[in-house]
Every structure is written in structure tokens, then in C-alpha cells.
Amino acid sequence: MLKIGVMGLGNIAQKAYLPVMAAMQDDYEWHLCTRNAAKGQHLAAKYGFTHVCQTLDELIASGVDAVFVHTPTATHAAIIEQLLRAGVNVYVDKPVATDPDVVARLYALAEEKHLLLTCGFNRRFAPNNVLLKQVAGKQMVTAEKSRQHTQQDAEFALWDLMIHPLDTALWLASESVTPIALQVRTDTAGMLQQAYYVADGEHVHVAVTVNMDAHANLEQVTVQGVDERLSSEDLLQLHRDDTASSTLVHRPDWEPVLETRGFAPLIRAFLQAVQNSGTNPVSPESVLASHRACAALVAELTK
Questions:
Q1: DSSP character string of 35-79
Q2: CA 156, 157, 158, 159: dihedral to nearest 10 degrees?
Q3: In terms of DSSP bridges, do strands 178-186 and 246-250 run parallel, antiparallel, or are they unpaired?
């Protein structure tokens, strides 16, 4: 049985990962790691885990085959490097790091060590987005993320929020694209208001927008192909349009939210790749493209 570590037990780990992992204890031996011993014991008891430690060195010494890293972004690079050098496969929340050169170096190290470094872009595994990916003859991909009057530091918001629709759109495009227009708007306090990314490929046009000062919370992605137009709203509803008709399909009522949002499928895909020495379920090249695109937007803040 593979031993799998989980480092960092904050909000994202508790909401999106531990519930899925708790249901997989017959297949994997889970090892929780947090500096907060009380939190570790509480969550272990809550989900029925039996192995808890407080340091990365202890986690590595336990013989884990892979580790899910859910610590703050600023800590990612050092933790990932230590794990890879210890021969441990790594899954890490986005972004891998906020410097694309660091991201490239970590992926090079993973390749050198013949290990996985998988970035947690869960939306690629959301069932509705998987259907959008299958649209033939893509001509246009648009992704919109709106927040209702939300105040966030611009650089933080770009890496925390903008990177999601940006990565989704670039992944859906299914070909390399070249940016043709970038814009970031902030208020006088440096809070993000809107951000825009527009790019062209050989066959497809990509447009991504984030609005932090909207009147609704919304996530919408649309793919237009030669024969159909599909649009996913909040990962829950799928609109299919053609000349003669328009249909709206809801995700099944019984489908768990972590399936709908792609977390559970991505967790399974990573673990299967670890177990079978398989292909990275989130390709390094595509991750680098998304991080470089986001870094280009961040660079607009200083212009």
C-alpha cells in the first residue's frame, strides 16, 4: 500500500482534499503533517487517519511515496525541492511558485529524478470542462471570473484568482497561443479591479477576464467550434447552442461537489500516476505556459 503525505492542513486541504482522501483509506496509507499538533490530532480523529507528524523531515522519514503540498505559496519551492531530492512525488496547489523560472527549475529537477510534480489545476478535471475540451475545430475560447465587490491586493489576486480562468482557457485552446493584449486595472490602494488577457493561436482566439468589482460571483467558460458552442457556468450548468436549438443541462443532483469541481478526479489521477509510474496528469509544459501568462499580467502592474 502506498504511503501518501498531506502537508499543510488549512482551509483548502480541509474543504477540497481531506474528505476525498478519507474515503480512500482502504487503498492508501495517509500521513498528515502540520506544525499545529492539536489541529493534526483533531483532523486525524475527524476523518479516521492514524498517522500524524509535525515536520517535513518526519514526513519524509516515514517513507511516503508522494506528498500533497497545501502550504502557503511562498513556501512551495523549498518544500518541493526537498521532497524531490528525497525521491518523493509531489502534488502542489497552484501556483507552484510566482517566478516562472523557479517553476521551470523545479520541473527540470522532477524530470531529472524521474518523479511527478503535479500542479492542482482542478478545473481541468471538472466534468463540464472536460466536455468543453472535446469540442472539435475550436475557434474561440473565452473565460470569465467575476467577484462581487471584492478587495484583494492586485498581485495576490492575479496569482490566487486570475490564474484559474487563465489556465482553463489556455488548456482548452489545445494549441500554443501568443498574447496580443494584456491589461490590469487597480484602484488607488493597489486593489485589483479588472484584468484582461487576449491571445491568438494558429486556429483559436483566447480571451480571459477577471472583474473584482462585479455585481455577482460568476465563473463562465465558453468554447466555440466549427459545429457547436458549449458554455459552462460555475461548473454546474452546461449550455449547448447551435442554429436550431439551445439546451441547458445541470450536473446530477447527487454528484458530490468535489467531483463537480474536479478535485476528486484530479486526486485520483495523480495517485494512479504515482502508483503506475504513469504520465503526469497535468503536463509540465502547460503549467509553465499558465504561470508565464500570469507573470506577464503581474508585470503590467509596474508599467
A1: S-HHHHHHHHHHHT--EEESSHHHHHHTT-SEEEE-S-HHHHHHH
A2: 50
A3: unpaired
Q: What is the pLDDT of residues 63-75, one digit of tens each?
A: 999 999 999 999 9
**Rounded CA gap, 116 and 12, in Å?**
21
183: nearest Cα among 171, 173, 204, 198: 198
Q: Which domain holds residue 223?
A: 124-260+290-302
Name residue, grid cell 452546461: 238
Question: Would you call 142 helix, strand, or coil by DSSP?
Answer: strand
Q: How far apart are the first and last CA of the chain?
A: 52
Other C-beta atoms closer than 10 Å to the C-beta of 184 total 22
3-state SS assignment for residue 273: helix
298 in Cβ contact with 192 (< 8 Å) = no
* Spatial contact of 60 and 8, defined as CB atoms under 8 Å apart: no
Cα–Cα distance measured from residue 279 to residue 291, given in angstroms and rounded to the nearest whole number: 20
The pLDDT assigned to 72 comes to: 97
Residue ranges for the chain with pLDDT beneath 50: none
Domain end call among 119, 150, 175:
119
- State pLDDT tens for residues 127-147: 999 999 999 999 999 999 999
Query: Of 70, 104, 119, at which residue does a domain stop?
Result: 119
Burial group, residue 12, by CB count within 10 angstroms (0-12, 13-18, 19+): middle
Amino acid at 19: P
Four-point Cα dihedral 257, 258, 260, 264, nearest 10: -160
What's 47's domain CATH number? 3.40.50.720
Tell me the pTM: 0.96
